[in-house]
Amino acid sequence: MSRREIFHPDKKVSTGHYSAGLIVDGWFYVSGQGPLDMRIGQPVRGTIEEETKLTLDHIDRILREGGCTRKDVVKCTCHLADIKDFDGFNRAYGEYFGDVKPARTTVQSVLWNGIKVEIDAIARVPQGK
Fold first, then answer.
1. Closest residue by Cα to residue 117 from 13, 102, 91
2. Which residues neighbour 89 within 8 Å (Cβ) at sequence distance 6 or greater?
3. Is residue 120 within 8 Å of residue 111, measured between CB atoms?
4. Residue ranges of domains in the chain
5. Parallel, antiparallel, or unpaired: how do β-strands 73-80 and 103-108 relate?
6. Per-residue three-class SS string for 52-107
7. What residues are paired with 73 via a beta bridge?
8. DSSP label at 40?
9. Model-wide pTM > 0.70
């Protein structure tokens, strides 16, 4: 089994004992990401749309570090602090992925430090990368 750890290129402080991403035998697992300022490891507060976009931007950066794009994502698990934010979250999420969206699970969860959204992703690494 081949394993390669992937880091967020802007992350300057530790926010826990986990890999931002891990590529295992051609599958790319991106850990749950939230709306954080990666320089200081603290939340960036905003609307659900703003927090979702920042969270997806973090996933995008990690995917690129591992040779993938959002088009390679096959599954996301999304956690909302308040399921009433679903419509705004869904609009921002839909804009990010475009026409062919990955499979998705969305649940309401208690999230760290008042963030509104956390998303993890699974992608397939293109052959030759």
1. 91
2. 48, 49, 52, 78, 80, 106, 117
3. no
4. 3-124
5. parallel
6. HHHHHHHHHHHHHHCCCCHHHEEEEEEEECCHHHHHHHHHHHHHHHCCCCCEEEEE
7. 123
8. T
9. yes
CATH number of 3-124: 3.30.1330.40
What rounded mean pLDDT belongs to the chain?
Answer: 95
Supply φ then ψ for residue 60, to 5 degrees: -55, -45
Please say whether the dihedral angle defined by the alpha carbons of residues 18, 124, 77 and 36, taken in this order, is positive or negative: positive
Residues found in the chain: 129
Three-class SS of residue 7?
coil
Ordered mean pLDDT values, 10 residues apiece, the chain (129 residues): 93 85 97 95 96 98 97 98 98 92 97 97 89
pLDDT per residue over 61-80, tens digit each? 999 999 999 999 999 999 99
